[in-house]
Task: structure prediction
Amino acid sequence: MIRFEQVGKRYPNGHMGLDGVSFHIRRGEMVFITGHSGAGKSTLLKLIMCMERPSSGQVHIGGQDLRDLGSNDIPYLRRQIGVVFQNHQLLFDRTVFDNVALPLVINGTPTDEVGRRVRAALDKVGLLNKEKSYPIALSGGEQQRIGIARAVVHKPALLLADEPTGNLDPSLSAEIMALFEDFNRVGVTVMIASHDLPLIAQLDHRMLTLDQGQLVTDGEQA
Ligand SMILES: Nc1ncnc2c1ncn2[C@@H]1O[C@H](COP(=O)(O)OP(=O)(O)OP(=O)(O)O)[C@@H](O)[C@H]1O
Result:
């Protein structure tokens, strides 16, 4: 599903965000990416989303070489991907329903289907009763769940998360990870960048470790 071959990313200031990174993630896997601050975790996720382009090497997503994608093809790629951010990036002047509906509205999904899909996504994250609330009225953990509902509302094959538990306490963080495991169990490929090693150690998934832009370990946890 995701294949990196000797991928390098040199930023315009000359800094190597990634350097010679190769790995293969199969459809249906759940994988953590870890490493120190600045190790290249966000850069790796941005390359998958085509928010950045590699300076060297090749990135394949679903068998497609991203070098062959023109700017007109990028929205199609992104429709197959859901993204969860640390600060969830919710719109505070819109209701929970409208926040979750946003990707569908952008895609031009018919209105009756929007309602059905939004409620299904809210149900999966356990917040069906909050559709009329505004994000400000929700706890940090609930806001992150809304961010996850928005990421999965268009049923992506691939779910990416960049430090999704960064602002949450340990028990809420564990609940959020359990939610990602639920989506993985029904076939979604999940990739989570996180430096929360104690939490990752409690979960039994493959872990890629970056150090200064290089992939230093790739394996199942002991
Ligand atoms: N647009 C940019 N221009 C120049 N350098 C950048 C840019 N984006 C990232 N970098 C640098 O590339 C390196 C990798 O950054 P990246 O954001 O991928 O790390 P990270 O592992 O996600 O870190 P963090 O956990 O702090 O978010 C860092 O040294 C960063 O300063």
